[in-house]
């Protein structure tokens, strides 16, 4: 277990915000996570993070920051005719898991390619993209209960996953240190192409029946074309969640905005792209001082180099107000704001 005093977190958040914490602790094993739980109980104030790809720091953190060691570690723990159970260390990059899985003929995660962040965060956030959500792959989450320092196993049903939500973000917040996630992957590749512009991108490459690797590469190209590299332009990917509204409200809005896109959720609800709403309010490509909205994807807020977390937060709130004023829809951050 590694512990650092008065630690700068700039390299641990993809926004590139300079913020310090009193102590920074890295756990590399389950036993170290059990010990870290004791440090957390003694600290009084703590923050659990992964790679910081979904984090906005608005000030220095007066307390202990804890993270799993960033390393690649995966293991097949069970296999049958249909698929495998792949156990992955919490600090493993999630996209590396997908690359490994495809290379070893394990399928089901292709549409989640190139989402930043680590395995542990995938289980907290219920990450998703292009019609897929990681909850449909998660079997169980291995963790250490902070209150007792004991290792536990949490089944998928206990996590109560929904769109970008889990119990880890609510009543379980700061109650567990995740050490591993076990995913169920399949031996038969079944492509899911009917979301966003996947088919159009495949058509442009003259690909009719993509392999898993071709689908992954196509999704990576789509994401890279519209999402900035955080090493070049600080950002946390999609800053806002797509709002889910009642069909009656959607029908009313569409009477005035017939071009408003949507995705079916159920018989009474639809999902509206937050990026489209933000774009309609004139924010796409707009800069305010050191912060702004990316010119290729309105869901992405960016740091032009010297921004503070407070500047990003102020921009977030202004955009929320504008969207609500125009459409009567409240959009919420997907990013964890500290």
Automatic annotation (TrEMBL):
Q: Please name one Pfam family that this protein belongs to.
A: MurB_C
Q: Which InterPro entries match?
A: FAD-bd_PCMH, FAD-bd_PCMH-like_sf, FAD-bd_PCMH_sub1, FAD-bd_PCMH_sub2, MurB, MurB_C, MurB_C_sf, Oxid_FAD_bind_N
Q: Which GO terms describe its molecular function?
A: FAD binding; UDP-N-acetylmuramate dehydrogenase activity
What this protein catalyses is: UDP-N-acetyl-alpha-D-muramate + NADP(+) = UDP-N-acetyl-3-O-(1-carboxyvinyl)-alpha-D-glucosamine + NADPH + H(+)
Enzyme superclass (EC) = oxidoreductase
Name the EC number(s). 1.3.1.98
| Listed cofactors | FAD
Similarity comment: Belongs to the MurB family.
How is this protein named in the record? Answer: UDP-N-acetylenolpyruvoylglucosamine reductase
Q: Which organism is it from?
A: Segatella baroniae F0067
**Native organism taxonomy:** Bacteria, Pseudomonadati, Bacteroidota, Bacteroidia, Bacteroidales
């Amino acid at each position: 277990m590694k512990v650092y005093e008065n630690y700068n977190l700039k390299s641990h958040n993809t926004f590139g915000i300079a913020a310090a914490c009193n102590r920074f602790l890295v756990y590399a094993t389950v036993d170290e996570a059990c010990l870290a739980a004791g440090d957390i109980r003694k600290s009084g104030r703590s923050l659990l993070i992964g790679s910081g790809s979904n984090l906005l720091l608005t000030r220095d953190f007066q307390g202990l920051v804890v993270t799993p060691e960033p390393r690649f570690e995966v293991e097949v723990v069970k296999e049958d005719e249909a698929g495998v159970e792949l156990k992955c260390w919490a600090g493993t990059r999630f996209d590396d898991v997908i690359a490994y899985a495809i290379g070893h003929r394990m399928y089901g995660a292709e549409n989640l390619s190139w989402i930043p962040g680590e395995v542990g965060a995938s289980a907290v956030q219920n990450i998703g993209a292009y019609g897929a959500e990681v909850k449909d792959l998660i079997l169980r989450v291995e963790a250490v209960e902070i209150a007792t320092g004991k290792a536990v196993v949490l089944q998928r049903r206990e996590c109560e996953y929904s769109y970008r939500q889990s119990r880890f973000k609510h009543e379980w917040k700061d109650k567990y240190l995740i050490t591993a996630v076990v995913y169920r992957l399949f031996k038969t590749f079944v492509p899911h192409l009917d979301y966003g512009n996947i088919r159009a991108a495949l058509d442009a490459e003259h690909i009719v029946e993509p392999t898993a690797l071709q689908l992954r590469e196509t999704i990576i190209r789509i994401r890279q074309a519209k999402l900035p590299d955080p090493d070049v332009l600080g950002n946390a990917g999609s800053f806002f969640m797509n709002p889910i509204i009642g069909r009656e409200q959607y029908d009313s809005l569409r009477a005035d905005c017939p071009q408003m896109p949507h995705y079916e959720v159920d018989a009474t609800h639809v999902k509206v792209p937050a990026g489209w709403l933000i774009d309609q309010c004139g924010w796409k490509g707009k800069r305010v001082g050191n912060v702004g909205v990316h010119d290729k994807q309105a869901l992405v807020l960016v740091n032009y180099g010297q921004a503070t977390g407070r500047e990003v937060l102020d921009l977030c709130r202004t955009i929320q107000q504008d969207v609500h004023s125009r459409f009567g829809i409240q959009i919420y951050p997907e990013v964890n704001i500290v």
